[in-house]
Here is the input.
Amino acid sequence: MKEVVLSGIRSTGNLHLGNYFGALSKFVRMQNDYDCLFFIADLHALTTHPDPKSLHGNVKDIIAEYLAAGLDPEKATIFVQSDVPEIPELYLLLNMHVGIGELMRTASFKDKARKALGIKSDNDNDDIEKEIIGTDSNKRVNAGLLTYPTLMAVDILIQKAHKVPVGKDQEQHLELTRRFARRFNSFYGVDLFPEPTNFDFGGAPVKVPGLDGSGKMGKSEGNCIYLADEEKVLRKKVMRAVTDEGPQAPNSPMAQPVQNLFTLLELTSTPDVVKHFTDAYADCSIRYGDLKKQLAEDILKITLPIRERYLEIRDNDEYIARVVKQGAERARERAAKTLAEVRDVMGIKRFW
Ligand code: TYM
Here is the structure.
């Protein structure tokens, strides 16, 4: 039997290179060899983007981008999280075994709670718990943000997934998922949930940097290159990427913003191109303009074909509907089986 692979992306806008290299490109490579399920996490999107005007369109965009990037609905199950009502039910049940302390200590929760409360510091020691409890209702941190990791664990556990291809930023959530699975299994003395691990074809999980010299590429950071960017827009973004004044002496260490450009080059270009610019940096002959031109060229080789197919598929409502209807049926069938097992194990039995 093939191992089960599951992963998802929140529907909070178009996909960027971080989503592509951290997740989607791996989905496409894995679909031939594993029993794969890939979904759109629209319920998770509600924790930060509860906007009825854009939610449905955002879901559609990501389905179209999945398909445009090469996901094949005959090989992988492609579905929308909210089409599987078994997920919210298991979410309620699993929450009975999850501690609010462990949820509050999650890095992504602290980060999003700070954002919701308008607190700038990302000092891990600040007393965010006190801020949350003391806050007034205009600036609340919604409970869905707190229980986000339970919902993510349920996405994974309800399909009994073994492998979960995600970027580095999601590893803490995966660690919690393993902990919840272990805890459930041992509390009820069963072997119901496998403990899932990240997957990266033997490499380390990636963190794709932004173009602004800062840390990771992210929608809320405003530093993204999108798969759907027009050629001109994309070139402009790359040419405007932050650098420094250039190496002042042979073999100088690289500043973070320059290192970021090399990370992107390693992801998108061939090894000889990377070597050419690494050597040029080392002997101080590098021209950042040339590096950026090459980088834009190599990114476009990946994104433009996806963009073209995306624009076509996005207008094909009938095709999209067919894909996700079939996906929902398959995902629900499996989820219902797991949920029935869980209810049974927990002692929730019908009298009729
Ligand atoms: P989301 O929507 O934030 O991101 C989707 C995927 O993209 C990866 N990613 C990155 N990888 C590398 N570098 C970056 N700069 C970068 N930015 C984003 C993320 O690691 C992720 O793999 N909680 C998840 C969605 C989710 C999920 C799940 C994933 C819900 N349930 C179950 C797997 C299994 C999330 O917020 O991803």
Q: What stands out?
A: The mean pLDDT is 95. The radius of gyration is 22 Å. Residues 6-10, 18-19, 21-23, 41, 44, 152, 155-156, 164, 166-167, 169-170, 173, 206-208, 216-218 surround tryptophanyl-5'AMP (CB under 6 Å).
